[in-house]
Amino acid sequence: MAYGACIFDLDGVITDTAHYHFLAWKRLAESVGVPFDEEDNHQLKGVGRMESLAYILAKSDRTFDEAARARLAEQKNDDYKNLIREISPADLLPGILDAFDWLTERGMKIGLASASKNARPVIESLGVADRFHYVADAAQIPRGKPAPDIFLDVATAFGLSPEDCIGVEDAAAGVTAIKSAGMIAIGIGDPVILAHADLILPDTADLVGKGFAPLIG
Ligand code: B16
Ligand code: MG
């Protein structure tokens, strides 16, 4: 099978901003009296900002009107932006640069399908913005993950059919999005949470050796 593109998730795949999202959501949840743990965090990985907030507020006895929700979302985002201020190329996860080199050497396109509206500044701080042939703009994508829209947007930008693309994700919602798009999914992380991926690797260091090499050759 000749694949034409590899489409990466950002948080939890290229870099561990997933942890900063966790810290910011935990602070926000606790400020409204809702406990928040790693299990909640798994539910929110890859899920957009307002949907994540709705998940947290659904656990509160209080009601929050639209203005209050907007304020809380802004508070979380300000907190998150403070946490990611120090990001540098040292924060790239292991094997990511090798993965980009490997794909580029084979003439494959590299895309980014992140639900984060902060994706652009993050890849710039990581020093890899110019490695991507296309970066989806989460603000322009109608439905968030687990809908396939963002992965299909990248495939369309490349002029490729979904079956010619591979997606890489750390989140259950993201793997579902890749599979619903009709692409091959590589999951990074927990084999139980990501059981619906075609191939699951414990971490990104194995992407080339145990992911791309056997799949793409
Ligand atoms: P923002 P990904 C997702 O990014 C995160 O996994 C998720 O936790 C976050 O809520 C979402 O982006 C929105 O991020 O608030 O910065 O727009 O994993 O799809 O790269
Ligand atoms: Mg992710």
Description:
The protein is of the alpha/beta class. The chain has two domains: 5-16 and 90-216, 3-Layer(aba) Sandwich (Rossmann fold), CATH 3.40.50.1000; 18-86, Putative phosphatase, domain 2 (DNA polymerase, domain 1, Orthogonal Bundle). Helices cover 45% and strands 11% of the residues. The protein has nine helices and six strands; from the N terminus they run βαααααβαβαβαββα. The protein has a six-stranded parallel sheet with strand order 3-2-1-4-5-6, with helices on both faces. The longest helix is centred in the middle third of the chain and has 18 residues, at 66-83. The termini are close together. The structure holds 1,6-di-O-phosphono-beta-D-glucopyranose and magnesium ion. Magnesium ion binds at residues 9, 11-13, 18, 45-46, 170-171, 174.
Q: Structurally, how many domains make up the residues?
A: 2
Share of helical residues: 40-55%
Largest sheet: 6 strands, parallel
Cα gyration radius (Å): 17 Å
Q: Say how many strands there are.
A: 6
Offer a quick outline of the entry:
The protein has helices at residues 17-31, 38-44, 49-57, 66-83, 96-105, 119-126, 149-158, 172-181, 207-216, and strands at residues 5-8, 109-112, 134-135, 165-169, 184-188, 199-201.
